[in-house]
């Protein structure tokens, strides 16, 4: 996929195009269960990109020490969340994609991992693997630049809102009802605020 440009709505439409790969294997009412968490995963990944190696180094240096790792890793990442995995969406590989993606998600800090758990993303990963689409979706989203320097927080918030409205329309629910069903998705702004 190529980098998108334009308004938040057009960027959201660009992201939603990933749903085209789901036709035939997923009901259209399930598209959002794939698109929303993958969008969030890519956003978190892009935010952490510049400190990935430093966080892994800090983890390896202090993991056996009798001190709390959380404050160190958060300070190192520059955000109130982090990930210590060696993987990214672009490096999961095509042969053990599910195992590697599950490892990647598991090694997020608790506050970030909780969002994926609320979306029951592990079930979505299994369904995508069974349909032979997991590697495709990972590769597609790995090509989307959602770095905060490229997509500011306000624009990203509008993209999420547009995607959620789109999903709400697909499942014949009001966007407000779906937003209530997915409260943690709207907490991403808190997660993306730079650590003080």
UniProtKB/TrEMBL annotation:
Reaction catalysis annotation: a 2'-deoxyadenosine in DNA + S-adenosyl-L-methionine = an N(6)-methyl-2'-deoxyadenosine in DNA + S-adenosyl-L-homocysteine + H(+)
Organism superkingdom: Bacteria
EC number: 2.1.1.72
Keywords for the protein's UniProt record, in alphabetical order: Methyltransferase, Restriction system, S-adenosyl-L-methionine, Transferase
Organism: Thalassotalea piscium
Signal peptide residues on this chain, from the entry's feature table: none
Protein name according to UniProt: site-specific DNA-methyltransferase (adenine-specific)
Gene3D superfamilies linked to this entry: 1.20.1260.30
PANTHER family assigned: SLR6095 PROTEIN, TYPE I RESTRICTION ENZYME MJAVIII METHYLASE SUBUNIT
Annotated GO biological process: DNA restriction-modification system; methylation
Family: Belongs to the N(4)/N(6)-methyltransferase family.
N6 adenine-specific DNA methyltransferase N-terminal domain sequence ranges: 13-141
Gene Ontology MF term list: site-specific DNA-methyltransferase (adenine-specific) activity
């Amino acid at each position: 996929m190529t980098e998108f440009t334009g308004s938040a709505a057009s960027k959201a439409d660009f992201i939603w195009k990933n749903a085209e790969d789901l036709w035939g294997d997923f009901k259209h009412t399930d598209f959002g269960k794939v698109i929303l968490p993958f969008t969030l995963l890519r956003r978190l990944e892009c935010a952490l990109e510049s400190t990935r190696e430093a966080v892994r180094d800090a983890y390896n240096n202090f993991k056996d020490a009798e001190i709390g790792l959380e404050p160190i890793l958060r300070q190192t990442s520059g955000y109130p969340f982090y990930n210590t995995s060696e993987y990214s969406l672009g490096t999961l590989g095509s042969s053990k994609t599910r195992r590697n993606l599950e490892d990647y998600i598991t090694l997020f800090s608790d506050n970030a991992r909780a969002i994926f758990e609320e979306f029951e993303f592990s079930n979505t990963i299994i369904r995508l693997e069974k349909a032979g689409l997991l590697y495709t979706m990972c590769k597609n989203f790995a090509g989307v630049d959602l770095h905060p320097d490229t997509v500011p927080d306000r624009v990203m918030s509008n993209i999420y809102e547009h995607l959620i409205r789109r999903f709400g329309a697909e499942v014949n629910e009001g966007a407000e009802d779906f937003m209530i069903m997915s409260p943690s998705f709207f907490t991403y702004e808190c997660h993306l605020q730079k650590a003080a």
